[in-house]
Backbone:
């Protein structure tokens, strides 16, 4: 059976994206090359950041086409994370709300990738 090594996000600026993920996920991304970095922020989950103008082969696709689904252990943890990210200046596509599948919010990284947190 095949395994997945990581999810790749195309980004405009690897350094800025590394700083964003370091702050919001409280982790230390690793720069693997000038245009490629890895973010390990949860058990068995790796996001790699690849600078879009350095793709081989090139791709017309840019950021904003993916969503990470991140469970919070409860509504208190979700609310705390929402407020923390708000204070850090994170942009939100959706403020905290209740829906058919529970309480959730959707944050955006610098390239428009969606970070949905739910409880």
Residues:
């Amino acid at each position: 059976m095949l395994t997945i090594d990581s999810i790749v996000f195309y980004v405009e600026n690897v350094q800025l994206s590394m700083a964003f993920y370091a702050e919001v996920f409280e982790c230390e991304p690793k720069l693997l090359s000038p245009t490629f970095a890895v973010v390990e922020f949860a058990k068995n989950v790796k996001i790699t950041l690849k600078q879009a103008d350095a793709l081989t082969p090139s791709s017309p696709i840019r950021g904003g086409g993916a969503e990470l689904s991140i469970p919070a252990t409860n509504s208190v943890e979700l609310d705390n994370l929402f407020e923390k990210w708000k204070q850090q200046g994170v942009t939100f596509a959706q403020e905290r709300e209740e829906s058919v599948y529970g309480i959730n919010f959707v944050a955006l990284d610098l390239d428009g990738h969606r970070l949905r947190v739910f409880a």
Notes: The first strand starts at residue 7 and ends at 11.
